[in-house]
Amino acid sequence: MISSCIPVSVGANPTRLLSDERTTLSQVRQVHAYIIKTNLVTHVLSVTKLVKVLSQSSVPYDAISVFAHALSCFHDMRGIEFFVPPTLKACGKSCALEEGKQIMGFILKTHLWNDPFVTNSLVRMCLELGMVELARSVFDKMPTRDLISWNSLLSGYLKAGQIDMAREVFERMPQRDLVSCNTMIDGYGKHGLCELAEEVFMDMGVRDVVTWTSMISAFVLNHQPKKGLCLFREMLSLGVRPDAPAVVSVLSAIADLGFVEEGKWIHGYIFSNKILDNYNFIGSALINMYAKCGQIENAYHVFRSICHRRNVGDWNSMISGLAFHGLAPEAIELFQEMERAKLKPDDITFLGLLSACNHGGLMDEGQFYFETMQIKFKIVPKIQHYGCIVDLLGRSGCLEQALEVIHNMPFEPDVLIWKAILCASMKHNNVVLGHTAALRALELAPQDSSCYVLLSNIYAKMGRWDDVSKVRSMMRKRGVRKIPGCSSILMDGKVHQFLVGKAMNVGYNQSVLSKLEEVVSKLKSEGYEPDLNEVFLDIEECEKESQLILHSEKLALAFGLSSIPEGVPIHIVKNLRICSDCHTFMQLVSKIYNRQIIIRDQNRFHHFNKGCCSCRNYW
Ligand SMILES: [Zn+2]
Ligand SMILES: [Zn+2]
């Protein structure tokens, strides 16, 4: 619909120039000036095109100015509905709240209110400006609502973190399409409601790659990496071609599981299928996967060979990977290289660096970088950065200084900080401070079983057995269950899991236990003595010893020794932190049996070789 005031031949339409995606901002501005000079501002096609291009440019506010100018020149309202939606989009993008409200007032007074294309844009603008309530009231009053209106409101609620409202909208929708279901799966996943996400997923008749990716990410985010990996395999078997986000999600699942063979396969798959990644996330995901799977050399190889070296995310993943392996000097060296390359580190870079100093016991360097990030790079530390420093000071025995940091930081200490103090107190035999820290941790996380375990360990250390049983009964009353220690080994594509106290896989039971007995007696003949202080139970010494022997990583090790060919390192993944008795045990086995043992526990990697551990007994 073309305004009749000035007849314009299509050939004279300068906005034709704007159809090319490579149009530069200065070309857009030239067209803009030309349109005003030649009074083409009343030509609907030209104005619509110009507003659209500007609304998507880096200067979206200019679209609003063009709209206002055009409106003052128009003789009637014909064709205006074409450029109102891009103007609303521009308001959202440029946070123009007042202008947005004025255009809304204008819409309400004209025929535009009956145009669903316009009202949908209005809902989206309100959501973009963070006015969720207003978006809802526009939505409720709209004369006609279509699927786009429902989907916009749904994603608006999810973006605003209002999961209950989103759920209400999703359940009330007269019909749903792929977009609605994919949005809801993603939303449920991000809000920890994995089961609900799975329900939506199972109910869907048609799924696309986004559906699969959203469900895989939901599993990964909610600590169910095994399910994420299985779903990825199912997706491949059904012939759905994964895209970059799917691959990044599954790499993260594999990293959590520590299944390096699967990771290598995906690595090859990415290259042979030329999966493109516009955001350079695959490089970081591969580095992270190799680092978490115990292959820091491969991570380094990926970092040096395939990554875009200007991407800070890749450097961050590499620094964190080195930290996880206790390679603090290497992490610091990489950071210095990053500085020489004039790349700007961010808060995640420093989190990696501080955690490297922490795992490496480098107290001076840790404090130096904590100051550097604030003074030189003007990065405000988050609570995680403070956590690293508190942990670093605490482990080094500077408990007073650690408490001072807590006292002076601008946050209330969280459960992780109290747990750091608690572990440090245990290590340095300060039961009084440990007791206070345990109580604080418990107040903050009454459902976290490890807090109860640590508190009862403190009481056990003090010999207060009555209090130990009180903590136990408190746990029972509150329905909190202790997470049992569990270690796994991947062999021939199959996961073998071992739970504390029993060899879980039936059939391995006897052979694993007799191998373990053999190892123990060999170690004892070489001077090994079980560290009974690690058993916080009021039981006889001999019973304590048999408890210790059945720690899950020892069972996994016995299985590894009898099943994995000599010369091949034994990789074990453990869900909790390794205890000091198991640590000594692994060191001795690596020496006496001349085997490399690599254990990933909750916090970091331990590479045992020739009687020593890469953590130098500091973990
Ligand atoms: Zn142990
Ligand atoms: Zn170690």
Automatic annotation (TrEMBL):
This is DYW domain-containing protein. The lineage of its organism: Eukaryota, Viridiplantae, Streptophyta, Embryophyta, Tracheophyta. It comes from the Eukaryota. GO terms for biological process: mRNA modification. It comes from Phaseolus vulgaris (Kidney bean). The keyword Repeat applies. Belongs to the PPR family. PCMP-E subfamily. Belongs to the PPR family. PCMP-H subfamily. InterPro entries: DYW_dom, E_motif, PPR_At4g14850-like_plant, PPR_rpt, TPR-like_helical_dom_sf. PROSITE patterns: PPR. GO terms for molecular function: RNA binding; zinc ion binding. The keyword Metal-binding does not apply. Residues 527-619 form the DYW domain. PPR repeats lie at residues 146-180, 208-242, 311-345, 448-482. It holds the Pfam family DYW_deaminase. Keywords: Repeat.
